[in-house]
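Journal club side-thread
Mid-discussion, someone asked how the predicted structure for our own chain would compare to the paper's figures. Pasting it here so we can look after the session.
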Amino acid sequence: MNNSSYWSTTNSPLYSFIFTIPLFVIYEIGVFTISVNDIVILRNGADVLMRQVLGLFGIYGVYGFSASFMIGFMVAFLRQKKALKSTAIHGEYLIWMFLESIFWGFALYILMASTTPLLIANTTGTMLQQVVLSIGAGIYEEFVFRVILIAGFGSILGFIFQWKKIAKTASGIIFAAALFSLFHFMGDYGEDPNFPVFMMRFIAGVFLGIIYVFRGFGPAAYAHTVYDLIVLTLVTTQL
């Protein structure tokens, strides 16, 4: 494998789109197997934000949310497709992306290790609910708080202060990470305010933001999911 080709080729919307499809399908199957009464438990920061926004347009429910995400992702991919040098997919690159994402997930766990007991204390719901929530968080939280908000905050602040690309990206990462952490404490199923947890989630948001900027949406989504599943594993082994 050509290392330089791998890093440049896989940091593209095409590879993120293909790479994320299995994760999205697994999540949809998981949601389908959960009863209607249990679905309401699947709430996270991205849910609170996106469900309220989509509700303004008359789009409600888990499936409306999922369909809106998939349509939005496909539109973003098609808009950027013309800028791609090639649409060929290297299967071995996808395997390496998966292994790379596992590495980033464990790196995030090491970074967050000091607050893992606090995060475990805030974990509720059945095993299936938590697995589905972990996968959903990887997809939707990264899509909202990295793909949308990093670009959004960066563009707005860059326009106001006439910043260059590096400053716009850095500010986008920081503001998106702060909102990412804050939204875990909002909504009917939000956690009780806790400043140490807020700061550690903020740091995690910055970490995932850097992964997104340099490696794309796919690795960031998988890394987030891997981290959540590691924490979930710790929960089950301590019960």
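Post-session note: The chain is about 80% helix and 0% strand.
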